[in-house]
Please model this.
Amino acid sequence: MISGGATVHNVSTPWGQADYHKHYIDGIDWYSTPSHGGFRLSNERLKAMHPALQQVFNPYYPNYFEEDCDWAKVAIAYPSLFDGKDYTAALMTIKSCWPGIYKQIMAGEIVSVKEF
Model:
């Protein structure tokens, strides 16, 4: 992933108060707390993704992609933000967590966002 980031204060996430923030591009940010973290996407970034990649673990927070599995959907949708190692890790995470989505990716049915 892109290096760099900053300590933050007073930012609430589904996992609690964020203590770290990293801005990738407009509409895509990473937040972490002492116990967990993940990506937050703007509505526009979320809508640009393939519908199968938009679904997240916690439907009460549809714009948040947690760090265990959901983050991989962001990497598949926006591969230019990640290096080859992280993209490969994302594919393996998708394969493990959502085998059906992995098959769709491999068949070319799910593609990355072309422009951002």
About this structure: The two ends are 17 Å apart (CA to CA). The beta strands are 12-13, 16-17, 20-25, 28-32, 37-41, 64-66. The first helix runs from residue 43 to 48. Residues 12-106 form one domain.
